[in-house]
């Protein structure tokens, strides 16, 4: 598959222009500067004059075709070495204004490389004039081949190219003959050349592109063994040009980085460390039944501890490793032609899925059922002595806000005695035991225990997506809301028995950080993770080491460990280091503004890598506004570094209602549905453009997805400051989303609590973009997955139809068989290219890319 690149390297990075002088028509230029290997002598195979089964003898062209060196991931510089069968051949610079000439010696192969950079989508013709045999590759794809040694006149071959904006690698494979080993490669443009648009370089340095975002090995998680000596690290990688993804795990020694075992291609699943000793357990299926094994990693011994488990789902080890708890699950949905829906959630996949808990005694192999009934039971935690467990059950309850009830139980797994810790809790909480088993650490929303945890000022309702921490005393039932004055939104926490501190991961504005909480001083302390966004964290069972996967705004995800004793951080896996070593990033900086009411709205700016404050730049404004802030993460579905690499200044802001800024700030999300946040986006955009002379205020675009897609639509009903607007999976009618989206009414618990279409028309109707479509004057692109269950496709369809009937400038693109997120590899590239091409058309006045992707048809 043709590799797709996104932005040109600036002239500063180029080793001069590698074009020869243009022809008189100013449309054709010869590539005059190359990196070339030293000559590599090839040899004919044994019995090359013997006919094969088809009656053919070995031909010289086979010598060129079958001597392969994959250069797809090699980006040479001058003086680098090419390894060929243990010999090293230097990459040297070769220059000629006309033909490139090679020594007249038979059967020598040379590799040539040059890097072409374009700052816009272009159509060009590749022209090769050659005497020797030669193959031409663009971005790893063979474009021209010539398999004959010409003696009298060169052979001229042409190939049409469509080049996306960005960095492209040209590779030649040349096989020399007895004489006339000359060739030249030229580019011919469909229109006159613009030297600011095209240049060639002998440097592999480049800006970010979509393949650098999607390809390469990604580290997903890291889990430590009992003593922190080993890490079980999970990886994934795409397998272009297919849409397949490979996932695997490796066991690595933390101190040395040595890989001790790999599970690439393994059929083993649920691989876990045991809580004691450096042992792992895993699951294997046989004839649709499940077996569980333990492997002593240091003694290299395997033991099967369970077999013939039906409907197996997952398992958790007791801290003493004498027992494990496992879940058996079954989907009770049946094939149907007509059926009655048993409540609102019954239309959702998985509503009739039920799971129950079992206990396995490891030594005897005895399996016992622990829970039964109508409602699923989910394991929450196991006590340190292994005698008690916490488990939950939950169910919808339409009788009152927030329409959901949770029960938490404690069971003695020796006597099967069950105690109810709480019943019919309206806001659910995730509970775990304190090290001594007398208390619970509960993570939930501000209203988890009613008003005791709410710190929302004058706001009417809390936003229960804003994670809080509580300590619940099992004897006195007393509740301590320990995060009441703590602004970050807490996502995950662990009570450490070794130092009796609580360690947690929390959204701190647009950062995600690690913190510790000292129960004696009641203070939170941030841990220096050397990163911006911590994706997950895990603690060794001896309480001495934390492992985590994290990234920074211009640095990919890495796996690291943090030693609690000396507060030192060590990177243990950085799989994208080589993949991204040639990427040049632009500057990023914070940019905040203060509203008239004194509230500060934070934001950040991404600059193009070759930024020049004396130039005028188009700008892209990004936001989410759906209560979760847009993190300072690397890559992702909307990689802002990539937009900047395409020559845009990118401004991202975090409007009111986002979590991670304190409960009062996040509670502003309730019953607002975008009015405050839209006006903040408009104010911030105007202020940023006015205070930065390098912004072209007539060429500002905006983009958002899901709630951010709704925000894109809403913005265009309230302002004309944008030159282009893109909404992915946006909500056009709050009422239809509330009723039809899989999570519509449940999300509305935190977006429009206690408000409904029948009692709050102003919010549901008057604030819906669909009912204000006549106010839209901005060109708008609506993109939507064709099988989106979160925000149904109809949300874009009805807005498209409204804008079409109103004669507005609107385009609508569907992504086949994709849900709320675009996950398919090739479709994700096409989806990104659609976004790039639309902005290029409207913000750079370069419609060619868009017109090539979506030519008008006479339908």
From TrEMBL:
The keyword Cell division is annotated on this UniProt entry: no
The Peptidase S9 prolyl oligopeptidase catalytic domain, residue ranges: 641-845
Record SUPFAM superfamilies: alpha/beta-Hydrolases, DPP6 N-terminal domain-like
Signal peptide interval: 1-20
Keyword Protease assigned: yes
Domain of life of the organism encoding this protein: Bacteria
Entry keyword set: Hydrolase, Protease, Serine protease, Signal
InterPro entries: 6-blade_b-propeller_TolB-like (IPR011042), AB_hydrolase_fold (IPR029058), Peptidase_S9_cat (IPR001375), WD40 (IPR011659)
Name of the featured protein: Prolyl oligopeptidase family serine peptidase
Taxonomic placement: Bacteria, Pseudomonadati, Bacteroidota, Bacteroidia, Marinilabiliales
